[in-house]
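Action item from last meeting closed. Structure (160 res):
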């Protein structure tokens, strides 16, 4: 006599797969780590303040972002003037986040995957006198009068 499994038993593997997909969803934690030298710079991502470096910023979607990093006026900066950093940052998907692999990592994988993109920057000194002069030259080209400069006549100390 031959035993033939009933059609109900054939559905068990499919049912177990569906239950595991519901109860054991995968998870991917994406983050962007921004480090600067010197540390303590303010980070803006798409115009939103994201904190002070080193900054770990969680995100959900890959793509191109507008990144601005600048050292605020404080004791960390001292007498140096540091040139702000601004660039477009493109974060690409790793291979396991591309279709069809992402179905496994996002839904079926029972653990948590950590994806971290690290960006490191070094601030360069900025010559504020040259920057001021270039602003004055641009204003003159556009026909704008620059503000009055401090002359020795105003600093003579004859104020009443």
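Sequence:
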């Amino acid at each position: 006599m031959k035993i033939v499994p009933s059609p109900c038993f054939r559905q068990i593997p499919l049912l177990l797969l569906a239950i595991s997909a519901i109860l054991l969803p995968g998870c991917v934690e994406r983050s962007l780590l921004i480090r600067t030298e010197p540390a303590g710079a303010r980070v803006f991502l798409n115009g939103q303040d994201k904190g002070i470096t080193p900054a770990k910023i969680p995100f959900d979607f890959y793509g191109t972002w507008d990144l601005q990093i600048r050292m605020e006026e404080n004791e960390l900066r001292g007498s140096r003037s540091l040139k702000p950093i601004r660039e477009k940052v493109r974060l690409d998907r790793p291979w396991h986040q591309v279709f069809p692999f992402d179905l496994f990592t996002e839904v079926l994988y029972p653990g948590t995957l950590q994806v971290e993109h690290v960006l490191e920057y070094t601030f360069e000194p900025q010559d504020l006198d040259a920057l001021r002069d270039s602003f004055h030259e641009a204003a003159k080209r556009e026909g704008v009068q620059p503000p009055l400069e401090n002359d020795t006549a105003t600093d003579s100390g004859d104020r009443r």
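Note appended to the action item: The two ends are 120 Å apart (CA to CA).
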